[in-house]
Amino acid sequence: MITTTGFASANFALWPPLLLLSLFALMFVGGSAGSTGSSIRVVRHLLLAKILRREVDQTVSPEFVMPIRLNGSPVEERTVRAIAAFVLLYVGIWAGGAAVLAIDSAISGVGLGTLDALAASASTLGNIGPAFGIAGPHGSYAELGDVSKVTMIGLMWVGRLEIVPVVVLLTRHYWRL
Q1: Cα separation of 177 and 72, whole Å?
Q2: Which contiguous run of DSSP H or E holds residue 80?
């Protein structure tokens, strides 16, 4: 799954639920900063953890001033806000995609459970490849309905091009200039 090639070397559908949950969590961990792999890059996870730590520290001690640092250099507040915005957009798009997949599969009678819909949305948004259930390691997305397929195409497109440029491209302000 981490190669983002779509190939499966083992039938992880037979693994215990705890390992499946671990794989599901790893769907949200992307590559390094220069990688072409999608999902949320590792550096964003690192900075998000530092942002959360700073917020907890400042809640306990409001007078505490703590700049976010990466490799010893302070990170600009604009960058900190951009990372928080990116993660919120990513989670929102993932949840919206999962909702569309779950609703469409319920309407069309495809056996896509809740975790399967969440994993399929995460897998397509992160351009990972296999998901769970019918879209698992030895399955296919072919059984899903047309609405689900169009949704997953959109998720793959947004995930590969990065979310912020796509959102900017879809804003009215961008097209006015």
Answers
A1: 39
A2: helix 77-108
Measured over the CA atoms of residue 14, residue 18, residue 19 and residue 20, the dihedral's sign is: positive
CB 164 within 8 A of CB 89: yes
What is the C-alpha separation between 99 and 28, in angstroms, rounded? 17
pLDDT tens for each residue of 112-147: 889 899 999 999 998 887 888 888 888 888 899 999
Phi, psi of 55, deg, nearest 5 = -65, -40
What are the residue ranges spanned by the domains of the chain?
A: 14-176
Q: CA–CA distance from 49 to each of 11, 15, 23, 127 (Å)?
A: 33, 30, 20, 24
What pTM did the predictor assign?
Answer: 0.86
Eight-state DSSP code of residue 130: -
How many other β-carbons are positioned within 10 Å of the β-carbon of residue 20? 17
